[in-house]
Design goal:
Length: 287
């Protein structure tokens, strides 16, 4: 109870609302005509930013901490039984205290019916809390999972990658190239493409984020993670797409997962009260 109170006292962040659009798109600057492209505006838009791509990406998580909070939209695509499914989530996140709340919606069945109520997820340092988990868990109870004990460090298990963990993966960037300028939700961004090493990311991760990334580095089929990152002029992640590969526990075959995150409305108010111990389910959870 004392820990919960400390979290509640630390997770009230007040700030101004930023840009509220949720749609994401990339509009690259192009040139047409025999004479090519010239002129100040076009040249400025196509010019490569100063500094190294690797350096900018490794600092992206720190820029989110400076921003404080944001809204988040997530999607996770994976192949299941020969069919590609997408799990979607939306919510808010406090980067300074690593606390977030997401509502995760599972895909519908082939007939178009919803097979499960939306799952509420609370993200905290070292822990994932889930409500409406199903599988024999009472509707009014939460399931608590120690993320350091998950073989993927909760980059995949929750159906939505923890936004800060996703950004901390970039701390392990090994190589990256600048692709060009574009827009995400009406915001001008710099598009980078590269590969991150989960083991290197774990070494550079902050506090409670280190052990989950170490677990992911060991548990995934490969510790190398290809990504596309879109940073705004302040170096903050606006869109981030990772391609993970993990081993299916039953079939022992690598499964490809694409996790995409959008961040917007920086400075939004975020409150994430964690469940009381009495509200956490202690029984056995069915598969």
């Amino acid at each position: 109870m004392a820990q919960r109170q400390r979290f509640q006292q630390r997770t009230r962040w007040h700030g101004r609302a930023g840009y509220g659009a949720l749609a994401a798109g990339l509009a690259m600057c192009g040139c047409a005509g025999l004479g090519g492209c010239s002129g100040g505006a076009s040249a400025a838009r196509s010019a490569e930013p100063a500094g190294s791509p690797v350096g900018a990406l490794r600092q992206a998580a720190d820029r989110l901490v400076e921003a404080g909070t944001s809204k988040a939209s997530t999607s996770m695509e994976m192949a299941a039984g020969g069919t590609r499914v997408t799990i979607r989530g939306s919510g808010v996140y406090d980067f300074r205290h690593r606390l977030g709340r997401l509502t995760v919606v599972l895909p519908r069945d082939p007939a178009g019916r919803s097979e499960h109520r939306p799952i509420t997820e609370l993200l905290a340092p070292g822990a994932l809390f889930m409500k409406n988990r199903g599988a024999g868990v009472p509707a009014d109870k939460w399931v608590r999972v120690d993320t350091a004990e998950l073989s993927d460090g909760n980059l995949v298990t929750g159906g939505a990658t923890d936004p800060y963990a996703a950004a901390e993966v970039l701390r392990g960037t090994r190589s990256a190239t600048y692709v060009g300028r574009g827009e995400v939700a009406g915001i001008e961004v710099l598009h980078y493409r590269g590969t991150a090493d989960l083991a290197a990311a774990a070494e550079q991760a902050s506090g409670a984020g280190r052990k989950p990334l170490e677990a992911a580095a060991k548990g995934f089929a490969t510790a190398m993670v290809p990504f596309d990152a879109y940073l705004d002029e302040q170096g903050r992640v606006r869109k981030l797409r990772h391609r993970f590969s993990f081993v299916n526990g039953r079939q022992r075959k690598p499964v490809a997962v694409a996790s995409t995150m959008l961040l917007f409305d920086f400075g939004v108010r975020v409150e994430v009260p964690l469940p009381d111990r009495a509200d956490i389910y202690e029984g056995k959870i069915a598969e």
